[in-house]
Amino acid sequence: MAPKRRRSASEWKQAGNESFKHGQYGQAAGYYTEAINILAKSGLKNPEELSILYSNRAACYLKNGTCTECIKDCSVSLDLSPFGIKPLLRRAAAYEALERYQLAYVDYKTVLQVDCNLQAAHDGVNRMTKALIEKDGTEWRKKLPPIPSVPLSQQTRWELMSDNNLIDTHSKRNISSGEQNGVLPSFKVLTESEIQRAKALKEEGNEWVKKKNYRKAIDKYSESLKFNNRESAAYTNRALCYLSLNQHQEAVKDCTEALKLDAGNVKAFYRRAQALKELKSMTKPLSCQNGKGDCLDPEGGPYLLLPQLPGSREHENAANIYFPHYPKQVWVQCG
Questions:
Q1: Do the record's keywords include Repeat (predicted)?
Q2: Cβ of 319: how many Cβ atoms within 10 Å?
Q3: Domains identified in the chain and CATH numbers
């Protein structure tokens, strides 16, 4: 009788995927362990495949509530293949479950550097921000560990699978414009020289702000954004200048752009709320005249209608501009 053929690593992985789909998370974790052991013993250098297996096993641990093991596997996965969205999100969820909010915040923010359109990461940042404010008060940002800087080469859009299909299957691809919720901002691919030029121009703008020359600062921030329109700080800094010059509608627009890039940006919320307060848009009734979102005030003149950002709590933040637990410097400092 011929000896029974041993399963390959890919076969163990596929068995793990099937078990995971049927909710058999413990069994799936065992299958992934078999695949990991086979690859480790083979001596073949395949860090990407090993990274996926560790990330998949971490998903099983997360589903079973074994958060410490989930964090370990995610960390190994990220060591093998840095800045993977799925292990970052899974580790963030495990940290959150263990109430290690600072580390969860860092992972969610790192994900948004890789792909700023992932709603799960935006929601995570918002939850962690709220939890950290309650825990550490207004100084919560000073207690954060450093957030790693994601290289430009890693800033690609990945397809985020649903909660019922968390397993990597090598189906990663770029998400084309208009594919996710019908709208994606059109970011150009930046070169390193463009990023550095944008940073230098932003710093020049900051220097003009210190000298209270807001018009020159606006020019510098505008030039910076021509090189890199993914920098939320350039928008919030320019918004500060517009506020100082009483150009409140421009300030609102810049803060809204900043929040599209970083949904938890406290400065953007505060500066936008201040601009809205000055515009009295919270109390002025609006009546939309067409399906495009163009609105007129009761006298028939044009009036600004802000786009509704998911989870932004626009009215709550504008109405609560004088939150006692946020100092004024939150919205008057440049980033």
A1: yes
A2: 14
A3: 9-154 (1.25.40.10), 192-332 (1.25.40.10)
**Cβ-contact 326, 270 below 8 angstroms:** yes
Packed helices 101-114 and 119-136: angle between N→C axes, nearest 10 degrees = 150
Contact yes or no for 54/74 (Cβ under 8 A): yes
Query: Which contiguous run of DSSP H or E holds residue 296?
Result: strand 295-296
Q: State which amino acid sits at residue 167.
A: I
Whether the full predicted model's pTM is greater than 0.90, yes or no, is no
**Residue positions counted in the chain:** 335
Residues 6+ apart with CB under 8 A from 223: 201
CB atoms within 10 A of CB 159: 13
d(CA 112, CA 109): 5
Measured CA distances, 147 to 108, 143, 181 (Å): 10, 12, 28
- CA distances to 32, 74, 157, 160, 275 from 49, rounded to whole Å, are 11, 14, 19, 18, 50
Which residues share a beta bridge with 296? 287, 302
Q: What is the pLDDT of residues 124-148, one digit of tens each?
A: 999 999 999 998 898 899 999 999 9
Burial class (CB in 10 A: 0-12, 13-18, 19+), 32: buried
- Cβ pair 58, 97 in contact under 8 A: no
Going by pLDDT thresholds of 50, 70 and 90, the confidence category of residue 80 is very high
Q: What's the pLDDT tens digit per position in 82-125?
A: 999 999 999 999 999 999 999 999 999 999 999 888 888 999 99
Of 94, 90, 121, 93, which Cα lies nearest the Cα of 108? 121
Query: pLDDT tier at 4 (50, 70, 90 boundaries)?
Result: low
What's the gap between Cα 1 and its chain centre?
Answer: 57
As a three-state string, the secondary structure of 165-211 is CCCCCCCCCCCCCCCCCCCCCCCCCCCHHHHHHHHHHHHHHHHHHHC
